[in-house]
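Inverse folding, one chain.
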């Protein structure tokens, strides 16, 4: 029965998923060209911006080329990221060192877009990297991304996060893994707003958390949310207070044509980490399951779909 549900779930969403996939493949020519250019060592920012975009008259392709080059060639500066050190984020320094924190990534992206006369602004705000940050009170912003304008209507503003497009870190910001991710180019607004909260609410494009407190209270939404088109989830609070052996119900609203083969929960950390598969149903575009927690403690719990982390909670289990 599970496989029939999977088939119907995928078939019902085939056309929307196919359109989304087509939009992603439209940039193959741009992606391949920029990748072939390599590092472009010794060149200044303006020259690099010209070289990576010169073959593409469409502004959208130009922006994609700039995103690609930065994502391929700039790495995350872990020390500057942990310390929120923005002193080394000038374009020349970033190009020399080939690394930056989020403010440096966004500033370089903005500068390269400006050379092409494309309006781009950087946005300071907040992101969560660990379940330890759920409900945390923050002293100041800890992330920066960009918004690009390609027309006069509100629909022609787009989210771009060149930092997360270039790779990912562990939750302690101790290890950076280089991994190109174009989900953060003209990112899905619904998913993006569950991961980013702007310091200036004017730069929240589309619906999202109403306050920083509301944002910090939500679970940690992972990159796989773009692949599965996660639009809604319950519990919607990141801290789950559970009772021993009393089931907690989960509902994940998805909009994808990807067949769901396995759903599991990853619980705990380090040597205590364990993974347990769960029985689930697919009902009207939602993945539904429940789980009884039997370990009395407080620990992170990550929902895995097809073995990919989708979102993470902090669970307190008591009697």
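Residues assigned per position:
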């Amino acid at each position: 029965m599970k496989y029939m549900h999977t088939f119907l779930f995928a078939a019902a969403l085939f056309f929307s998923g196919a359109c989304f996939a087509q939009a992603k493949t439209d940039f193959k020519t741009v992606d391949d060209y920029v990748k072939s250019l390599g590092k472009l060592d010794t060149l200044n920012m303006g020259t690099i911006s010209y070289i990576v975009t010169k073959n593409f008259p469409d502004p959208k392709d130009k922006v994609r080329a700039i995103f690609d080059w930065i994502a391929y060639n700039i790495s995350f500066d872990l020390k500057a990221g942990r310390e929120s050190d923005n002193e080394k984020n000038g374009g020349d320094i970033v190009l020399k060192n080939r690394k930056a924190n989020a403010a440096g990534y966004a500033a370089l992206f903005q500068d390269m877009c400006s050379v092409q006369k494309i309006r781009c602004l950087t946005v300071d705000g907040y992101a969560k990297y660990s379940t330890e940050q759920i409900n945390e009170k923050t002293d100041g912003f800890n992330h920066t991304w960009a918004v690009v304008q390609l027309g006069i209507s509100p629909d022609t503003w787009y989210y771009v996060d060149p930092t997360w497009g270039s790779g990912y870190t562990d939750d302690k910001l101790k290890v950076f893994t280089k991994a190109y991710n174009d989900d953060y180019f003209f990112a899905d607004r619904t998913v993006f707003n569950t991961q980013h909260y702007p310091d200036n609410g004017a730069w929240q494009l589309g619906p999202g958390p109403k306050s920083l407190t509301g944002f910090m209270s939500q679970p940690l939404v992972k990159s796989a949310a773009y692949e599965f088109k996660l639009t809604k989830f319950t519990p919607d609070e990141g801290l789950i207070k559970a009772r021993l052996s009393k089931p907690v119900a989960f509902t994940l609203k998805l909009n994808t044509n990807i067949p769901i083969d396995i759903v599991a929960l990853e619980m705990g950390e380090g040597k205590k980490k364990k993974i347990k598969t769960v029985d689930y149903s697919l009902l009207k575009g939602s993945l539904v399951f429940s789980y009884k927690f039997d370990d009395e403690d407080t620990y992170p719990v990550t929902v895995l779909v097809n073995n990919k982390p989708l979102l993470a909670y902090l669970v307190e289990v008591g009697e």
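The longest helix spans residues 59-73. The longest strand covers residues 308-318.
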